[in-house]
Structure formats: structure tokens, C-alpha cells
Design a protein that fits this description.
The protein is α/β, with parallel strands linked by helices. The chain folds into two domains: about 220 residues, Spore Coat Polysaccharide Biosynthesis Protein SpsA, Chain A (Alpha-Beta Complex); about 80 residues, no CATH class. The protein is built from twelve helices and ten strands. It has an eight-stranded mixed sheet, with helices on both faces. A two-stranded antiparallel ribbon has the order 7-8. Strand 7 and strand 8 form a beta hairpin. Helix 2 packs parallel to helix 3 and helix 9 packs across helix 11. The protein is globular and about 45 Å long. It starts with a helix and ends in a 6-residue tail after the last helix.
Length: about 300
């Protein structure tokens, strides 16, 4: 009986400690957007109806010319957790600004064209109790040929660092310690961020229960653009961190699995063009800035 009482007290104390950490952990969500009016309502609806409410939802708008800001302001009148900031700049600069003005102990990133599962915040906070960085599961929605394509992983110190910022959370102290997103990057800024976190021996974990539904590209042109800039970003990573080819499996890159399609080879070919384009232009800041501002960068 005494043994049972000791076990009960131990379990009770452990549950209380976990609940205390869970309760006091302030959680900020950051969404960057430019001209995202068709997605904005769905994204915000999914975040204000969570099982565990976030402390704030920060929308950083890069001077949209559509009704995005109007939509966010309407939601902010109904939900005091929603905050709108207008700050032009790159994706990395926008997210850095969001972190700067946030109040959270944890800063989570989600894209405007994504929808969070109702348990997303709860699962992110739960995983963050034993981690410095948490990546969640991305469930892609759209044309089967596009969504069947698997992410090309990149390992560093035995950890996959290619988890995208559509579903990614950092302890704010860790994010600040490694310097946040590097605005030098036009693409792949989240992979660079994860690389530096793992390189500094911070713990990155994957929680498959922290689910975000993400819309895939809907058109052939959109798919080609995404593939091109995907390759561009991989070369940027090589320019910043040296050769990374040893992390790839060449046969896996060209092998078409039973769950994949010819779209994998199309993506590979177009990505290679983006990779080579970055090899020529990647170190020329003036040209990169022009690319950021051009319609060619729209995806």
C-alpha cells in the first residue's frame, strides 16, 4: 500500500509539473503574407478555434495591395489575440520582425495558405516541453501528382533539417541565440535556420501529431516556379555552408517510387536549372534583390 501511495504521489507531482510548464508557456504564432486574401480567413479561423488557445497570432503583411489587411483587421476586432503589422521585406525579414514584436516564449511559424489542425497548438506545446525546435507534420492538399512528391531531405548531425516553416516552432531564446532568419537568403531560409540550430547542438524533434494542412500548387506554372526556386535555394545553402552533396542519395533523387510519378523527374530537372542559375547569380546581391522584387519570384 505504501508503494502504491508513493507511485501515486510521484505520478501526481509529475503531472502537475507538466501542467504548470504547459500552462505558463506563452505561445506566439507568426504568419507572413503578401496579397493572400483568398487564404487569410481559412488560416485565421483555424488558429482562433484551437483546443489550446495561442497567446497571440501575429500577421506581418508585406504591403499587400489586395484586401488582406482589411480581412485581418476585421478578425482583430473579434479576437484580441490577432495582431496586424505592416512591414515590407523578404520572408526572413518578415518572420524576424514578427519574432521581435512577439510576447511568446515559443514562436511558431505557419504559412497563410495553410490550415492548422484543431490540436496543433496543443501538440506543439506538448512537444516543446522536451525540445528546442519542433517540426510538425505537413499534410498537402491538391493534385495527386504534386502532393505525392516527397521532400528531398538533408541531414546534419543525423537530423533532418529540411522541415519547412509552414509548420515549425522555436523557443524564442534559441531563435534569438542563433540570429534568426538570415535575410541574405532568397530561398531556403528555414533550412538554413534549422542547420544553424542543429549545428549549435539544440534539440530538433518531429511531432507527427502537430498537423498543418497545406495547399499544393494548383497550376503547372506554379509547380515549375516552385521547383525552380527550390533548386535555387539548395545552391544558396551550398554557397553559405559549403558542399552539401554528401547528404544526398543520388539514386533516391532519380528513383520514382510506386507512390510517386513522372512529376518527380520534372521537379528534379527544373530544380537543377534553378541550382545552376543560383550558381551564376547567387553571390550578386544587386541581382538577387531585383529577383526578390520581380514577379518571377511570385509562387
Amino acid at each position: 500500500m505504501r508503494y502504491i501511495n508513493i507511485c501515486f504521489l510521484f505520478l501526481t507531482e509529475n503531472i502537475i509539473n507538466q501542467w504548470f510548464i504547459f500552462a505558463i508557456m506563452r505561445f506566439s504564432i507568426i504568419i507572413i503574407v503578401r496579397n493572400g486574401e483568398i487564404f487569410m480567413r481559412d488560416a485565421l479561423d483555424s488558429l482562433v478555434h484551437q483546443s489550446v488557445k495561442p497567446d497571440e497570432v501575429i500577421v506581418v503583411d508585406a504591403e499587400s495591395t489586395d484586401f488582406t489587411q482589411h480581412i485581418v483587421r476585421d478578425y482583430a476586432k473579434k479576437y484580441d489575440v490577432i495582431k496586424l503589422y505592416v512591414e515590407p521585406g523578404t520572408r526572413g525579414e518578415g518572420r524576424n520582425y514578427g519574432v521581435k514584436v512577439s510576447i511568446g516564449d515559443v514562436v511558431a511559424f505557419m504559412d497563410v495558405d495553410a490550415i492548422a489542425n484543431a490540436l496543433w497548438v496543443e501538440e506543439m506545446k506538448r512537444a516543446m516541453e522536451d525540445a528546442d525546435v519542433v517540426a510538425g507534420r505537413e499534410v498537402r492538399l491538391g493534385y495527386t501528382g504534386f502532393i505525392s512528391l516527397k521532400r528531398v531531405g538533408m541531414m546534419h548531425k543525423g537530423v533532418d533539417i529540411t522541415y519547412p516553416s509552414v509548420n515549425l516552432a522555436y523557443k524564442k531564446s534559441v531563435f534569438e541565440a542563433i540570429g534568426g532568419f538570415d535575410p541574405w537568403f532568397k530561398e531556403a531560409e528555414e533550412v538554413d535556420l534549422n542547420f544553424r540550430a542543429v549545428d549549435a547542438d539544440y534539440k530538433l524533434v518531429y511531432n507527427e501529431k502537430a498537423i498543418v494542412y497545406h495547399r499544393a500548387r494548383e497550376t503547372f506554372t506554379g509547380f515549375l516556379k516552385q521547383s525552380f526556386w527550390y533548386g535555387f535555394g539548395r545552391k544558396e545553402l551550398a554557397l553559405r555552408h559549403g558542399t552539401l552533396w554528401q547528404t544526398y542519395e543520388p539514386l533516391d533523387m532519380v528513383k520514382v517510387g510506386k507512390d510517386e510519378s513522372i512529376w518527380k523527374l520534372i521537379r528534379l530537372g527544373v530544380s537543377f536549372l534553378g541550382y545552376m542559375f543560383c550558381k551564376v547569380t547567387g553571390k550578386r546581391e544587386t541581382l538577387k534583390n531585383r529577383l526578390r522584387e520581380s514577379k518571377a519570384s511570385d509562387r
